[in-house]
Amino acid sequence: MPDHNFRDRLEALDRCSYKAYKSLRGQHPFASFTLHVDSVQGDPFAAPSRLRVVVPQAIAGFPRRLCDTASRRIALEDYLLRQFHQQAQGYSRHRGSGKSGLIAIAAPSQAMLSRTAVTVSATSVEVRFAVGLPAHGRRIAGRQAAELLCDDLPKLIEQALRYSQLDATAIQAQGDTAETADWLRDQLRDRQLVAFVADGAILPRRSGVDERSLGPAAVPFRSPASLRVSLTRPNGETITGMGIPTGITLIVGGGYHGKSTLLKAIEQGVYNHVPGDGREQVVTTATAVKVRAEEGRSVTGVDVSPFINHLPQGRSTEQFSTADASGSTSQAASIIEAVAAGATALLLDEDTSATNFMIRDRRMQALIAKAQEPITPLVDKVRQLYTDHGVSTILVMGGSGDYFDVADTVIALNEYQAADVTAQARQIAADDRTERQAEGGQQFGSLSPRVVLPDSIDPQRGHRAVSLKVRATDEIRLGLTEIDLSAVEQLVEPGQVKAIAAALVYAQRHYLDGERSLAAVLQAVAVDIAAHGLDCLNDQLNGEFAAFRMQELAAAINRLRTLKTTAPTAASLPQD
Q1: How close are the terminal C-alpha atoms of the chain, in Å?
Q2: What is the reported pTM?
Q3: Fold that domain 288-431 belongs to in CATH
């Protein structure tokens, strides 16, 4: 039960001006939790008020074994978020004007992510959520507010945040699932694998806008015997599946046979997934980056010379900039940027790639001499990228057998079943030589660091020192500038984009000094988040942030149209 004074205060506010709600800011003790009102909306039509509840573990009752590792803690927090989100929908109902009566929390995807919405510690459970404080017009509806906060909220907390009221078996299973995925992913490097797809995995999704499993209608994955590996769970249990080795891997097959579905699962394998998703034991090296053509994107100061050189009029491509990149130029820049941000594997799909970036066949070489063609296709650089820089590539390819010459592994999909056809592909390459000439030299080329100039990231808009707006997973408005993230395909939740937006401002304030390279700035931000959590990105106790990778933060910075860069000084470069 709440403090009676709090209910009395709410009822006493009835019919007052909506701004009187601001008197509620602060903390309010209840019998089983403490309610914190951190911010109050300006009117019932504005963004909802931000609230927190803190439930002592003496009441919440979650055993320590459920959060004794990072994997299990994140899994438990994710489970509680899903419970709160589901239960809140039953209490969130229209109670007046605008958003009156809303109870909302950050909606989860199929991935288990660290988020600021729920935090579990040895002493407490904290949940951050939004509430539309009730009003009629712009007058406070005090009785409805009392019903919402003093009656419904305690019931919601009892149902969603008390261990005794939850499914203990499901909680344990979610923790086991997360821990297993992390253990599998941790074994990839020692086994010289880029990814692992477990036998029995369900890869197809319900639709392009519904990431849930297709379920019984899908064909379970079965690994080819020659690529089957065995990895172990923490309890010693063996899990078999297809191991994709480091190096260059092609995924081939006819249309609609599952090539892109397999690549999509591998792409999402950088995250752990909830039980029942079907991809719980599909894991990918944590720094794998999906790259696609992105016609029209902005490119600033990127050394694309490994792929693009000898431009007309002798223009240099070692610090290449354009406000309107072609598909091939954008893809070249995105690869260089991803590697600079720490990517150790690249994922590409022929369907979303620029044809002239992927291949230049023998006949085109005969018609257009290399001296007239500034683009060196990926087929001639992908092997060098691996041998010179240790970056593997997984490529869906249905239209060009020229990649057989450079592939280490070739996987064919036929009616969603995988087969190892590496030997056949090599034999075809030997028997039917393309006669095309390799282009681009013997080495991949330079990977030049860049320094971001701090004044090129400006979050200010009008009188507001920081103006940030996020749309779903595909756009950030930073001050007066929009950042298009629609081609950054591994973002799965709006909370990731909101955290990235805050990280842009954080990096600009703390680390973009005109001396550090972008890679060094990303590393500094990553260290701070690891030490202090996502809350270090701002001081608002935001409940909408979700964990992101530094590769996606780099992608956002690199797509900023106001971006300005320079080469690092000799003093700022790492010393041998």
Answers
A1: 64
A2: 0.96
A3: Rossmann fold (3.40.50)
